[in-house]
Amino acid sequence: MKKLTLTYFLLCLVSVKLCAQKIEVKSTKFDSVKFSLIRKELNSLNTEAFTKKVFEANGTKLPYRLLAPKNQKLGTKYPLIIALHNSSRLGTNNESQLEPLTRTWLREQMRDQFPAFVLAPQFETRPTIYAEHDKLKILTATPQANLQILLRLIDSFKENPSVDTKRIYLIGYSMGGSTAQHLMSAKPDWFAAMIAVAGVPDISNLQNIKHKPIWLIHGRKDDENPFNGSKKLFEQLKENKKARFTIYESLDHNNITLPLLATNELAKWLFKWKI
């Protein structure tokens, strides 16, 4: 009996569908030179297709970039992807927020296979702050007031007849991963699915996200936004059968996005969900 129990546990660990949740542990060593070249290629892409725009509400301005579907067809509805940047991209130049993970949507193959609107806002100040949680002994994230203008911007897109409001997705890295969690927790009925890469968790409103499709991705060696935060959030979502957790054993905060830049797996996962 003990042997069967151990076998079932190990099967869960390698992510077979017998488990309520999906956990993937990836120990493969990544070729840092290869992925650095991919990142360099992404950073060299022409970003003119990401149109520069500014949203204003009550005297507050939010710069953002918008990528429209290629060969957009009249009368067709497309998903809306909210791509959220890390803290090193704070500012008002309306350029820095296009980090490599966001630039992957510019690739011709991605635009052909996954036509969508991609909205990339840029925050001047942090939309989230971190503090130690006394009980859980992990860093947790708390949303800030400047998230409200982004919610208003997203709400305005819901009025666009070309936007499929049943397929609005969130994806973010680092601070952006925490921001994605804040948005999902605040408006779970707005968003079909969320991917948070190396984020600090928001555990303040777990009731709102207990049935939402959520994919957490984190490097075990991350000591900037510690790995244990995502681990603890995933444990808190143990009843959520749509929750997924990918652990990269050998990666840290600065290289966690590298294996995500040369794949369409993130888009494939997002696009299978709808409200």
Percent range of helical residues:
25-40%
Give the oligomer, counting copies of the same chain as homo and different chains as hetero.
Answer: single chain
What CATH architecture do you see? 3-Layer(aba) Sandwich
Number of domains: 1
Structure annotation, total helices: 9
Overall, the morphology is: globular
Question: Per CATH, what is the topology?
Answer: Rossmann fold
Give a quick account of the main beta sheet: strands, pairing sense, barrel closure.
Answer: 9 strands, mixed
Can you tell me the CATH superfamily?
Alpha/Beta hydrolase fold, catalytic domain
- Which regions are unreliable across 5 or more consecutive residues at pLDDT < 50? 1-19
Strand order of the largest sheet: 1-11-10-9-8-4-5-3-2
Mean pLDDT: 91
- What letter string, H or E per element, gives the SSE order? HEHEEEHHEEEHEHEHEHEH
What do you see in this structure?
The chain is α/β, with parallel strands linked by helices and 275 residues long. The chain has one domain (26-271): Alpha/Beta hydrolase fold, catalytic domain (Rossmann fold). It is 28% helix and 26% strand. The strands form 2 sheets. A 9-stranded mixed sheet has the order 1-11-10-9-8-4-5-3-2, with helices on both faces. The model is unreliable at 1-19 (pLDDT under 50).
Question: Would you kindly provide a brief summary of this structure?
Answer:
The chain has 275 residues and is of the alpha/beta class. Helix content is 28%, strand content 26%. It has helices at residues 2-13, 32-43, 100-103, 108-113, 147-157, 175-186, 206-209, 227-236, 265-271, and strands spanning 22-26, 50-57, 60-67, 78-84, 117-121, 128-132, 139-143, 163-173, 193-197, 214-219, 243-248.
